[in-house]
User: What shape does this take?
Amino acid sequence: MTNTIKIIKTEAANNKALKRIEHLMGTARPGTPEGDELELLTTLVELYEKENAPILPPSPVEAIRFRMDQMDLTNRDLVPILGSKSRVSEVLSGKRPLTLSMIRALRKHLDIPADVLVDSPEELPQEPTGIQWENYPLKELVHRGWFQGLKRWKKEFSAQAEEWMRDLHERAGGGPFCAPAACFRKGSRRNAKADSYALHAWILCVKAKATQILREHRSELGTFERNRLDDDFFREIVRLSVQENGPKVAQNLLKVYGILLVIVPHFDKTYLDGAAMLLEDGTPVIGLTLRHDRIDNFWFCLLHELAHVREHLHPDNTDLVLDDLDIHVDDDGIEKQADMIAREAELPADVWKKSKAYQLPTAQNVRSLAKAQKIHPAIVAGRARFEIKNYRMLSKLVGFKTVRELFAKEMQGPSGH
Assistant: This one.
């Protein structure tokens, strides 16, 4: 064994020793000078690397588990901090990344520094500004089952509003979380009394349900091609109205054309009938509230939103249009265009103006025109009521309280589709 072996103090000396070890491992035998040299060099390298190797910070999960061990905490003890039993399990198994509100809570309750809870500073969740999380319709969201594991509202739940809304946002497709008021196209047909937080919550619910459908039934969805939505397509949709379950048939047909129709009841202070929007991957979605539970209203809303899908939704321009169809529009170009397309698809103006139902809107004349056009009488009755501005006439023909029951499962909460 050479007499020049010394304590390793530099990286260069360590590399030299490693090369010598590699050489000796192929020839040295125990009990020989070469074997003693190999044993000594191995010990010196281990000592050097133990003292000089960088100490890597713990992963976020390791840091949490370390503090849990120090404080003698169980998974159940983290439920008030992270939000639910399933969420704690997902975080500790590494299946769910930490959100900003989780990091704050862990820092406050477990005294873990924020920089330890992210793998790198760049991964720290961006904090949206100007959001009052407790202003979202949390009570309605809880009652409708949008927050996993929560069925009854309690006032103290408001403290977890940010975590819940971020979770709903992720289920809706993720992307940057924007302030509610920044989510709407300026020209959307919105009631001035509408609450931005309620509108944003409704949009997130529509997208979350659509994303779930897309994930579970992607094979049933055709490829969306805008040019397939021609006038013949619109007429085909309208003629489904004569079927008893026409709205459900239309929902299934739209899937073939690559469009998702989602029903999410309106929230208080949304004043919405429907919306047309794009998911993150560009899939067009029509959301309807069915707040006016009538057959004529369903078909006009559906056709109006389909017009937006065909004419106005583009990933690089407009990805969302909201509609309160009770609002009369004079100067909004895209809304007037969508109204016109929907009315012409239902009942062309030249046919309507020449009909007996237009001149004398009796029940018999309405049914006669509907039969000739192969559409539901409610559509003709709705046109007459709208143009005369008499919403008491022909009330037995417009199909009150018949649409929601077709979508009863979807009306109940997030899982129905």
Observations:
- The chain has 18 helices and four strands.
